[in-house]
Amino acid sequence: xxxxxxxxxxxxxxxxxxxxxxxxxxxxxxxxxxxxxxxxxxxxxxxxxxxxxxxxxxxxxxxxxxxxxxxxxxxxxxxxxxxxxxxxxxxxxxxxxxxxxxxxxxxxxxxxxxxxxxxxxxxxxxxxxxxxxxxxxxxxxxxxxxxxxxxxxxxxxxxxxxxxxxxxxxxxxxxxxxxxxxxxxxxxxxxxxxxxxxxxxxxxxxxxxxxxxxxxxxxxxxxxxxxxxxxxxxxxxxxxxxxxxxxxxxxxxxxxxxxxxxxxxxxxxxxxxxxxxxxxxxxxxxxxxxxxxxxxxxxxxxxxxxxxxxxxxxxxxxxxxxxxxxxxxxxxxxxxxxxxxxxxxxxxxxxxxxxxxxxxxxxxxxxxxxxxxxxxxxxxxxxxxxxxxxxxxxxxxxxxxxxxxxxxxxxxxxxxxxxxxxxxxxxxxxx
Length: 431
Prior knowledge:
alpha/beta, 16-stranded parallel β-sheet, 8-stranded parallel β-sheet, 13% helix, elongated
């Protein structure tokens, strides 16, 4: 049995010196023993293994050992100056990783040969489009898929073609250049920085229609250092953006996201501590903002400006801003808000300006602690549903009674007569 050392942090299995040969079966046996130790359970599976099916006549299919989760094999470095030939034998050794699917990590003064078996060998395309299509069909708004490109600010290069994670480009600008307008291309943003947080200072200006930008969540952060323009600008139509943490430079008055294109989807983003608005919409139609957190913006959480129609904002958490949501300007009409939690804003929860038409605030909003008030309505044909946690049936009944009866004291009026009847009935019940 070969002597192996497992380096958990580097995800490397080292064949210790002076050994020069290791078999696929030996690797598999020791990998399984390592995985079973309780201290290693947090690192998941290191490898998959296939083969050893009987072929008849005492012949069996050879072992295929597939390293996953970025694990690799390395022979311990030698002192040189001569190069030592090392061999992995007794089966097939393959990998799926960010190192161009190479299962071997190079070391000093070693040359590794993998003596692959002739059976079995499986050739697989570098991108599983069927799986990607299935996943995309469950997300976003548009189900079509064009090209797929990878953006990795940590280890990518703008000299790459961006077609696989191993050949990712370094900048969004390059990824967008590679993408085709109008075909539903997808850009996957990869978070691979040491420490778990990938921080990007590049500002994103989306100019191609039908582009889909998929982030890795909080671990992929757009944090520009220079003020003057929004962190992310959407001027194209039918754009989808999901899974980013977004802020602005600390100085200036910049928006995190500015949208002027139509049919934009912003989903699953965390927008925080901006020097301007969290999201600003103008001259746009059918924008959808869903499941976002928007907090601590110097200006409004969501600012809906002139000629914005048919926007839908739902299931968002909006707190710590000036107004939570502000609608103002000419041509603002038919915008809908559903199931949002809007609290602790220094202005109104939702402020509807004059000239704003047919705003709908519905489906169990929760307002709390907004300094100026939950809502202000200066618009036309506004519908505001009672918020979640609003008045109880008893409170509503008491208010109706006070409005219709208790506040009226003019002798001879119906309200006065009803009030006197109520008073007499109350006194009679006390006898």
